[in-house]
Amino acid sequence: MNLPNGAMVAVVDGEKLALFRNTGHGGEVSLTAQTVPAIEERASGSAGRISSEANPDNNTQAEDGFAMGVAEVLNKWALSSKGDKLLVIAAPKTLGELRKHWHKELSSRLVGEISKDLTGHSADQIAAAIGKA
User: The pTM is what?
Assistant: First the structure.
C-alpha cells in the first residue's frame, strides 16, 4: 500500500488504540508514534448484540463500546482538520464496529483499511504490514 507522507495510522482492537504518523517519503513507510487521546468509556456499543455461549466472558459490549469511543475520537480528528489522510488497521470485529460510527468526513479521509489485529506490534512490524497490503 502506498501511504502518503503525513497520513495518520490508527491501530485498534477492542481494548487498545495506537496512533502513528507516516514520516516516510517516496513510498517508504516510516511510522512515528503519536499521543493517544483519552477514549471515553462506554457501557456498551451498538444495540442488538447480546452475550451467547460463543462469547461466555461477556466482553463483547465492552469491546464494542471501546470501538465506539475510538470512532468518536477519529471523527473529531477528521472534523477539526488535523490531518488529511487516515489508514485504519483494526481487528476484524472492531473494524466492523468502527464503520458503524464513522462520520462521512472521516470516511472521505480514509486511504485504506487493514482488517488485522496489530495492536502490541512494533512500529516497524506495522509498517511492514502496511507495505504488504
Answer: 0.85
Q: Which three cell numbers stand for residue 86?
A: 487516515
| Cell of residue 8, nine digits | 495518520
Q: Where are the domains of the chain?
A: 8-21+34-132
> How do residues 86-128 score in pLDDT, each as one tens digit?
999 999 999 999 999 999 999 999 999 999 999 999 999 999 9
Instruction: Report the 3 state secondary structure along 48-100.
Output: CCCCCCCCCCCCHHHHHHHHHHHHHHHHHHHHCCCCCCEEEEECHHHHHHHHH
Q: What confidence tens digit (pLDDT) does each residue in 14-58 have?
A: 899 999 999 998 889 999 999 999 887 665 544 444 444 455 455
CATH architecture designation of domain 8-21+34-132: 2-Layer Sandwich (3.30)
Q: How far is CA 6 from the centre of its chain?
A: 16
**What's the one-letter identity of residue 49?**
R
Torsion of CA 4, 32, 120, 105, to 10 degrees: -50
Question: Which residue in this structure is represented by grid cell 482488517?
Answer: 115
